[in-house]
């Protein structure tokens, strides 16, 4: 299949499965999981969790790993599974090493070179018996009884054995001996570069490159696994590709280290991701020129469910966009075996889940399900006799549903089960094709359901089977009887009456009380499709309730009648306590909450439109760089405010003014109650709060007849960023005012508004000092926006307190 390339305009949200069923060949060297094992030890999938990137990783490594991880996150989608969470993303293919793991014990080979620090164990039996353990000293000597000092430095283990046997033979005859190594000398090597725990390590003299990596934790996430280098006396003496060991179990190049060797882990090389239907989906490091087939082999080969005719490679094209390459893996030795590049993602799709050789039996049968389709198969091969049917089968009619190519539209073939089983009609035994669906029906499904209907104030409204001579009372009983709020004097019975000019609708009115008591004149005989509507008692509402809390004598939940007033609720709650602070009363209503939330949403939408208008290029082109920066800063502030407002939920507070119950009656504030109204009456807080652009935001003890400036001074005065002209007071009753001389003020003693100073502060008030917004007097829209900010801030208090 030729390569096809097209630009990715929009990042795909999923990977569609290609159609078709793969029954072809697997290319040589790429084996389905479970069909042929790899030579040597295979590394288990899911090595080291990817996790968060380590600080200090090179930006290009992080970027490449991030891109590949993003696509590998879709790897399970390729296999028809939900996408994993971030913590479940396929990991980079890494060494499963843990810092500090000891070097494994291995036998000492005959060519092992003896040196200071080695422990030598000698056992002799026969003509002489004895066991000795001795260390090679710094001078390279050992000391044995009778033999004295013997120089052993730079001897191989085999040479040591020969020398000791020769020396013992000088003094003894007829003996046998065994010479072994105890603890071995250690020496220092250095693990540097991109290791997890770089440093100097004392290791056994038998240690290899992999042993040194073990004690240092292996390569870090930024370290290469394909080019581990060993340097000795400043020269490169060995290279190790860890993939040889991890994937193939090959340790041929795992050379033994010498004193002062340097194990260097270079930065990670180019990376590719392999996702989907392979044995080990992961991120792999490339080494040299790597072709598609080699990357798939590194990933353990394709699984048995892999679709080989379309393998997709996603590639970053010229650092500008992403492109797809669709390749045929069955022709992998040809031009489709492309060279991979850094950042490529290889996706192996699954075969379609559609089974190509099936027919389906469903309906009123004993063993419904999917059956194998065979050449020449007919209906009689799955409906062999009447014994496969359930009781109540409709024998005159069954269907075969078929998808007809090329557009796969549906066609239906009908047949009689009676004729099929009797053999009287050969055409009833329809020849089946793949994907056919045979449906057998129940008798009740094929007979029209005769019905009557009842709705309204009954316990189980719905449709019921009509029976001859059925009465209104029978229908009411089938519906579970009447509810407590049913209006029995007049229920409406709607009936369709056939006439010469067509069907007409008529209404009959039934006294249900009489009908249920056996009055034949009201207990009408029903006809098919009659519809009975049982009305509810007008304005019936079961257990309508309101709530009153705080400083009343009997707080709690109260049922109320339609039209009841707020003063009545307070009166029923026993009236106020002596600690009640009426000015701070909070009254919340559900309908007000909905209205307020809609108003806030409208303000936010209007604010967003104005922000968009401020940011158009025509306006921006007329500004200086300083002005443009100011506009940008201001726009960011406004966007933050919008986001904050979106998180606020309206509470439905309404401003009410409470008074003694007798004085409230007949006033506009003696409002009519609604379902779920809530009234809370607090105690007097005797405090005033100052917030915003002051030096010490806090609550201060309330002092009568002091204005807002008094409390601002108590808070340390205005800060440098304060908008002194924008101060406003959020009143304890939920309203908001701007302080100014003249106008009206609330007189708590006389319980009424009086002329005077509107900057008077009451107990429970909050004084808000806003910050200044960037001042651009030459841009009118900024002034308009400031007004919007004020309206929203005030509304937020009124709506949400």
Protein described:
- This protein is an alpha+beta fold and 801 residues long.
- The protein has six domains: 4-95 and 269-350, Outer membrane lipoprotein wza fold like, CATH 3.10.560.10; 119-181, wza like fold (2-Layer Sandwich), CATH 3.30.1950; 186-218 and 228-265, Outer membrane lipoprotein wza fold like (Roll), CATH 3.10.560.10; 358-446, Roll (Outer membrane lipoprotein wza fold like); 451-534, Outer membrane lipoprotein wza domain like (Outer membrane lipoprotein wza fold like), CATH 3.10.560; 685-770, Roll (Outer membrane lipoprotein wza fold like).
- Helix content is 21%, strand content 26%.
- The strands form nine sheets. Strands 1-15-14-16-12-13 form a six-stranded mixed sheet, sandwiched between helices. The protein has a five-stranded mixed sheet with strand order 8-7-11-9-10, covered by helices on one side.
- α12 (590-614) packs antiparallel against α17 (780-800).
- The radius of gyration is 45 Å and the shape is flat.
- The two termini are 68 Å apart.
- Residues 1-63, 74-89, 98-102 and 776-801 have low confidence and may be disordered.
Number of E strands = 38
pLDDT < 50 runs, ≥5 residues: 1-63, 74-89, 98-102, 776-801
Counting structural domains, the number is: 6
The biggest beta sheet is recorded as: 6 strands, mixed
In the CATH hierarchy, the third-tier topology of the largest domain is known as Outer membrane lipoprotein wza fold like
Radius of gyration: 45 Å
Q: Averaging pLDDT over every residue, what do you get?
A: 79
What general outline do the C-alpha atoms trace? flat
Q: Name the assembly state.
A: single chain
**Can you tell me the CATH class of the largest domain?**
Alpha Beta
The first-to-last residue Cα distance is: 68 Å
Percent of residues in helices: 10-25%
Structural class comes to alpha+beta
Which architecture of the largest domain per CATH?
Roll
Count of separate DSSP helical elements: 17
